[in-house]
Amino acid sequence: MIPSSTYRIQLGPTMTFADVAEIADYLAALGVGAVYTSPILAATPGSTHGYDVVDPSRASDALGGEDGRMRLAGELQELELGLVVDIVPNHMGIADPKANPWWWDVLTHGREAEHARFFDVDWAGGPVLVPVLASDSVDDLSIEDGELRYFEHRFPIAPGTDGGTPQEVHERQHYRLVNWRRANSELNYRRFFDITTLAAVRMEDPAVFDATHEALLRWIGNREITGLRVDHPDGLTHPGEYLRRLREKAPDTWIVVEKILGPDERLPTSWPVDGTTGYDALRLVCGVFVDPAGEPVLSELAGNQDLHGMETERKRWVAEHLLRAEIRRISRLDVPEEALLEYLPRYSVYRSYLADGEVSALPSGEVGERMLAHPDSELTGRVEQTAAAVMAKGVEDTTFYRYNRFVALNEVGSDPGRFGVPVDEFHTRLAAAVESSMTTLSTHDTKRSEDVRARLAVLSEIAGEFADTVHRWTAKAPLPEPTLNLLAWQTIVGAWPISVDRLRAYLEKASREAKISTSWSDRNADFDDAVAAWPATVIETLGGEIADFVVNRLEGPGWSNSLGQKLIQLTMPGVPDVYQGTELWDYSLVDPDNRRPVDFEARREILASVEDAAPPIDSTGAAKLRVVSQVLRLRWERPELFTGYAPLSATGVAAANVVAFSRGEGDLVAVATRLPVGLARAGGWRDTTLPLTGSFTDVLSGQTHESFALADVFSRYPVALLVRSGQ
């Protein structure tokens, strides 16, 4: 069943099944249609996210186990809330081999193991390489309790292979413990991207599918799960085949896929899914609040970077260095490594889907011709899988930390080279949108939250002033690398007020992902120390100036943009998702910053306070919660209002400063202010009006309108949700 909306919860040590059950009544009161959680299956001990599943046959003990899961299911059913869960078909966690019985079996018995077929291991390459050693030495191995030990790491000893020194026992095993630095070039099992502790599974094997989905499908059959979010389908050998099998087993379940679509890309038509997880919607909603007039100034401020060249160069570097093991494995299918290194970076999207008849994304060239001739071949599957990893690591995880002219656009599914989204394109795309697809503004994977991006959008309206400010601040407190410097200033104003610790943690991640002056694997101690010291210095010396700039120039227009983005996302075609905590202002950055605990008690109190009256727009965020709750409740109670789509154009001197559309055959109209700084500078709404007739009530402000001068419609909020009176 398609939910009216979803609310994303990040499960973990501080948010268990019992904790979700405790807030379920709040979510129901908010108007949510379904609770949407991160993975619920047993994960690596100590996991903070659940994407490292170790046993798909049972619910996570750390989250409350089967008893906790059942109690949560009962509570949600009592409140008529659905449950959408995140599933991870591409890989399993192997950081703690003992915790994963299937991987332990493989390490114990090698290619003769019962579960050898479950993992994508290149058995022709010899024993399984396990990259955990700090060096090439095995001198620190020991044997304890019948296991081979390397400090805290435990590994099995195959039957009949004990006796002698630990090093001699090690040489008899079906695996080899090796220097962690050998992973990127020599590993002989496929990983999730370049993460060696996440081993890819062979989901194309029906037996693997059945074993990994048995519990999930049983819970679906019991109506304890009503929807699935499929993580990273691009890592699968045959995503379409997998999704068809999943749909066959769960015919009535709402299924969305975490498919990153480029701005001009569409889902393969043969995939029997309800849509995506909403990054395509995020690009449109955020982009329409960006002022294209700011592009030249911000481009110059960033040094007129070459985005396309940077992406191509970074993808080539990733293929050659981070994913060299995968390249070498493909090359054994009679394709030269150099040909692959030249070919893979030419993908302009995450991957092609030749087995599903989708060929438009395939780059031309000799490798592509071989793939076209044999779409079901191992070569095709491995090239396509690796192309997705090359794109993710080269663009999303590297270029998006380097190309920093305007970081509000640096999100997956977006093209930072396109400076915003024109209103006409926005309407055209929404008119063709899929009603059953998820829409979102913030996720656990976004680089920065919706409210950070909304505030940053204001910079596009005051680009010259911001450029001057950056130059002035940089002269007083520079960072030693120019692109990181520009990223840091955008980050600090976008997320202000921000603590020294949060800013330090973010800049550490950003600098190491960018891989310019430092990286995760090759540290530059002097540079790292300078970056670590900067947050305290800049907040102490420039904190007052930064606060003044944010409060006087960004805060108010940013709130306007935030409310506009949220109203549009919640009312546009699709199933809107609210990421945990973002019903109030939320100025989070990339994970783990966006996984911090949420104060739900405070949200309960604010929700009660905005039940009957529209609160002011202020730092509490109560106005945003009012917008969220009113729209979600209306979607739950009046689904017929959220059908169809028609653009609505204002008339008058400020017509360009409004984005509006109608739904439900014209009985519901969503209206939002855009480019609020320019609007105020030009003198406000003046004669601008909406071409509506009849009587409408704004469910956000409570006001009824029979004339639609925007100065009146927006007298309370810079957004309005108008419902025809009597409907």
UniProtKB/TrEMBL annotation:
GO molecular function: (1,4)-alpha-D-glucan 1-alpha-D-glucosylmutase activity
SMART domains on file: Aamy
Domain Glycosyl hydrolase family 13 catalytic: 3-614
GO biological-process terms attached to the record: alpha-glucan catabolic process; trehalose biosynthetic process
Highest taxon in the source lineage: Bacteria
PANTHER family, A to Z: ALPHA-AMYLASE FAMILY MEMBER, MALTOOLIGOSYL TREHALOSE SYNTHASE-RELATED
Protein name per its UniProtKB record: (1->4)-alpha-D-glucan 1-alpha-D-glucosylmutase
Classification lineage: Bacteria, Bacillati, Actinomycetota, Actinomycetes, Pseudonocardiales
